[in-house]
Amino acid sequence: MDESKKTKGKKKIEIKKIEKEDDLLVTFSKRRSGIYKKANEIVTLCGAEVAFLAFSPTGKPYSFAHPSMECVTNSFLNQNSLQDDKIHSIFETYNQSKIDELTKEYNELVDKLQIEREKMKALKQLARERDAKGWWETPLNDLSYPELKQMEASFIKLYNNLANQLNETSGGASSHVT
Which SUPFAM superfamilies does this chain map to (predicted)? Predict the structure, then answer.
């Protein structure tokens, strides 16, 4: 056994009534939330009608029900009324319309995303084509004003560099553009 281990890890506990009141309240709270989660999972996964009612050690009632406590208890007691069926059908219709609305919104967003991806792909292709050509070969109509100014500055710099090279090799004077 490892001496450095600080805890005993997960171990099975004996099921018996908890004596300490604080521990009892904490355990009730944790177990209650766990039962709510499980009841909600059963409703979501199976579409079951679920009702859960518990009283805390202090006497406070807690409940969970789907579609409603009254509907589930009436089903349990075989006293389904026409009104409960109408309410249930209204909820189901509302839920289905909400699902349909969200599905439509999702599909629209997926379509927009696809369009944006195609635009990005086209822009990348244009950038590759532009990069494949020399920057000086790009049609002027395709350039923005800042790009035109940058191109002008590049041409001026190129001209001055060429003029300096010619001046150095020929030993003569040449004009510079500023």
Answer: SRF-like
